[in-house]
Amino acid sequence: MLTSLERYFEFARLETNWRTEILAGCTTFVTMAYIIFVNPSILSETGMPFAAVTAATCLASALGCFLMGAIARYPVALAPGMGLNAYFTFVVVKGLGVPWPAALGAVFISGILFLVLTAAGVRQMIVEAIPRELYASVAVGIGLFIAFVGFRNAGIVVADPATLVGLGNLRAPGTLLALFGLLLTGALMIWRVRGAMLLGVVGTTLTGMLTGVVKWSPQPYSVTAISGTFLKLDISAALKFGLLEIVFVFLFVDLFDNIGTLVAVGKRAGLFDADGKIPRLNRILTSDALATTAGSLLGTSTVVSYIESAAGVVAGGRSGVTAIVTGLLFVVALFVAPVAGVIPVQATAPALILVGALMLAHAAEIEWSDPLQSIPAFLTMTAIPLTFSIANGLAFGFVSSTLLRAAAGKWRSIHWLVYVLAALCIARFVYLGRG
Predict the structure, then answer these.
(1) Tens of pLDDT along 239-288?
(2) pLDDT of residue 149
(3) pTM flag (> 0.70)
(4) What are phi and psi of 329, to 5 degrees?
(5) 39, 31, 77, 78: which is closest to 55 by C-alpha?
(6) What would the 3-class secondary structure string for the chain be?
(7) With bands split at pLDDT 50, 70 and 90, how would you rate the model's confidence at 69?
(8) Which of 315, 406, 361 is nearest to 75 (CA)?
């Protein structure tokens, strides 16, 4: 049985084993376990029951991880997307006055459209239309992005009204705990300890509990609470409200966020084929679409690939087993969700910072002396952290690469779909800049 599974997940080719994959899956889970509580705290602003969304988050995440791991066989974890949940809550429901069941209906429609576009091969064409030199810059940009998130969660970088960002209070207990975790995890990595990321998170959490920095305040919770959102979506109301624009946003952001994540994780894990393409792309996109559709039925916003998966890859994860292990832990969290809440952001922040640092190595793959590569690459890798959006960064790089190639007289070699996508990206930027 185990031998058959090892053949299916290509352990020999990927040079991995069960111990490594399980450690990697645990590492991915602890770096993204915050979503179990952050997602409900955001979506509950719409009037959705907190406990119900908590259960829906665990189930949707588990299902997404299982699909990605078992069908696509990638070490990429899925969960309700940060950013899209805020858009769902503050723009769609609170801003436009759309009832949350109708908003869930829009998410369901976007998931169905994902499946249709995938079956028609359109999403695959979009992925393959992205210039190859942007792959490395996306990986670098996401590395900077997650490192920035880590610095922010650690309290090392804070908002500043004069300079936008500034240095936080390094004497604050939470920040000191994060700095300790950064030193601990870094030392474990230098000593080449297996599972350094996971051990660093666990060690930092235990230190925080012993010093009183981490305080656990579990909320009342039961799995049966999911009845508050399960199958409560209203597709007819979504169509009645004419939510085409909202569905497009869900489609666009999810597509580009997922592409960026897959490129970054795939580059880090060495999962691209000899031609620089992503193997089993159709299965990846189908898994993502099914997870989003199921998530809307369970009661949560769009499910996306999580860049925290890179932490598991750094820990050695190479196969779909990593994602499956992460999914199993989300199933466990479904029954003991408050326990997962004991892991503070100060414990996961060091892992994000160090993963970000390791991903910068891909900058060496860019031909910096060639403006056709260097300019789009620079715009991509800087726009991702500075706009706090993978989709924005990829759009900047995609548009600039297309326009510069056309200006260089290479417009005939550009696929027609690239022009269409560039036009859509520009239209999106114009729309976002209306206010």
Answers:
(1) 776 666 667 667 766 776 677 777 777 777 777 776 667 778 888 888 98
(2) 82
(3) yes
(4) -70, -30
(5) 39
(6) CHHHHHHHCCHHHHCCCHHHHHHHHHHHHHHHCCHHHHHHHHHHHHCCCHHHHHHHHHHHHHHHHHHHHHHHCCCCCEEECCCHHHHHHHHHHCCCCCCHHHHHHHHHHHHHHHHHHHHCCHHHHHHHHCCCHHHHHHHHHHHHHHHHHHHHHHCCEEEECCCEEEECCCCCHHHHHHHHHHHHHHHHHHCCCCCHHHHHHHHHHHHHHHHCCCCCCCCCCCHHHHHHCCCCCCHHHHHHCCCHHHHHHHHHHHHHHHHHHHHHHHHHHCCCCCCCCCCCHHHHHHHHHHHHHHHHHHCCCCEEECCCHHHHHHCCCCCHHHHHHHHHHHHHHHHCHHHHCCCCHHHHHHHHHHHHHHHHHHHHHCCCCCHHHHHHHHHHHHHHHHCCCHHHHHHHHHHHHHHHHHHCCCHHHCCHHHHHHHHHHHHHHHHHCCC
(7) very high
(8) 315
**Structure-token pair, residue 421:** 């996508």
pLDDT in tens, 182-191: 999 999 989 9
